[in-house]
Amino acid sequence: MHLTNTLALLVLAGTGLGFRVSTYSDTNCQTLNGDVNVYDNTCATGHATFQSVTVTAYGAHRQRAAFYSANACDATSPWIDYYADGGSDKFLKGRCISLPFPIHALGSRSV
């Protein structure tokens, strides 16, 4: 019983963390800005503007990682998104992703 409870807690803890990316000020992942953790179903702002990322951790099942040109997670401004749960052929751990415009906010949402 104790093992079952421990495993359930680990599964829930892993899905609540969200995705994590390293951000870069250039388009080819050369000039590191820092790391950003985006909790599932939240918006992250207040970090340095960036133009490329490398994925360091995936989000929960059916989460989308969205990157916004606005200073908020505002879908009326230019934005792009990917599946953040490891199911994307582009949003993969360790791969440099060049974004089409400078990014000011990033978010995670369930689909």
Give your account of this protein's structure.
This protein is mainly beta and 111 residues long. It has one domain (2-110): Gamma-B Crystallin, domain 1. Helix content is 13%, strand content 43%. The protein contains 1 helix and 8 strands, in the order αββββββββ. It has one helix spanning 2-15, and strands spanning 19-24, 32-38, 43-44, 50-57, 63-68, 79-83, 96-103, 105-110. Strands 2-1-4-7 form a 4-stranded antiparallel beta sheet, with no helix packed on it. The chain has a 4-stranded antiparallel beta sheet with strand order 3-8-5-6, with no helix packed on it. Strand 1 and strand 2 form a beta hairpin. The chain is globular. The termini are far apart. The relative contact order is 0.24. Residues 1-15 have low confidence and may be disordered.
Explain the layout of strands and helices.
Elements: H1 2-15, E1 19-24, E2 32-38, E3 43-44, E4 50-57, E5 63-68, E6 79-83, E7 96-103, E8 105-110
Antiparallel strand pairs: 1-2, 1-4, 3-8, 4-7, 5-6, 5-8
